[in-house]
Structures are given as C-alpha cells and as structure tokens.
Design a protein that fits this description.
Blueprint: E1 8-10, H1 24-36, H2 39-53, H3 58-72, H4 78-95, E2 116-117, E3 120-121, H5 145-162, E4 163-165
Parallel strand pairs: 1-4
Antiparallel strand pairs: 2-3
Length: 171
C-alpha cells in the first residue's frame, strides 16, 4: 500500500496510551485513514488466511462446537448460540498456554510448566485442561497464538504505514 498523502502525526507518548486514554480525534484520524487506504481489508484478509491455513483449523473447530450446541439443545436461538460460543472462546483463551509456556488459569494466575503436576496436566475448575482441549475433551476454542501473532504483525505494519511519530511531541 502506498503511504497516505498526509500521515497521521502521533506523539511519542502515545506508546503509553490505553484505549481509554487515546485521544478520540487521533483514533478517528487513524481509523479513517486505515479504512480509506484499504488497510482494514488487508488486516482482515491476513487474519482469515492465517485462520484458514493454521493447522489447528480453528474455523472448523468453532463450526463443530456451534453445531454440537445446537444439536444437543443447549442453545436454541442464534443470539444464544453466538453468546455461548463467544463465552466458550473467551474461557478457553483464558486457559490457553501463553507464549512462555505457562497457562493463565481460570483467574489469570500462571500455572508453571504448562500446569503439569507429577507429569499430569492440571485440570481447571470447569473441566477444561490446558493441554489444548476444552471441557469434555473437545478441541480448545482459543484462537491459536500463531494466528494472533500474524494479525498483530499485519496491524502493526498497517499502522506504521499510516502513522508518523512526531518527535516534537506536538499534535
């Protein structure tokens, strides 16, 4: 993608901003240029490619989980299905091992060595284990870390293309 004619000037202090402290006008400027220049589409395409090419086959795992919930009668409407699948993804993501080999556990506390105790995987409170499976032995619904990393890289590349750090700190 070509650089926009007028890149967004971002103060160096923005590196410390959170979503709550980011200037709404700055956020709006960045979002507008990302959309106008086609970067949002690029990020979405790279995310979809990463999801579909990852060996975990996450889209199919989600589809199978949703079908299982519908067939079992646990959910009976689309809004309930969507809420339940999102809840299950969040839950499995919280239990998924992070990149340094530890698991966050149910309350965010790390479980060293991938949660292994005497060579056995530690069981979480709701029946999910941190060995890539969810409750009942189903595959984990957490988005694979490699996919998250790809999406973050694509997003960073696009942001670097449209933003310019203003060394003077004036914007």
């Amino acid at each position: 993608m070509a650089n926009p004619s007028t890149p967004v000037k971002v103060p160096p202090s923005a590196a410390n901003y959170t979503a709550a402290t980011l200037d709404p006008d700055l956020r709006s400027q960045i979002n507008s240029i990302l959309i106008k220049e086609g970067h949002v589409t690029r990020i979405q395409e790279q995310l979809l490619h990463a999801l579909n090419s990852n060996q975990a086959n996450w889209p199919t795992v989600i589809q199978n989980h949703a079908l299982s919930l519908l067939r079992s009668g646990e959910v009976t409407s689309f809004p309930a299905l969507l809420n339940r699948v999102l809840e299950d993804v969040r839950h499995d993501t919280a239990l998924a091992p992070n990149t340094n080999g530890t698991s966050k556990g149910v309350n965010g506390a790390s479980e060293e060595n991938g949660g292994a105790v005497n060579g056995k995987k530690k069981e979480a409170t709701n029946g999910a284990t941190n060995n890539g499976t969810g409750p009942g032995g189903r595959p984990s619904l957490a988005v694979p870390q490699a996919v998250v990393d790809e999406a973050l890289k694509a997003t960073r590349d696009c942001l670097e293309a449209v933003c310019e750090i203003d060394e003077n700190g004036t914007t």
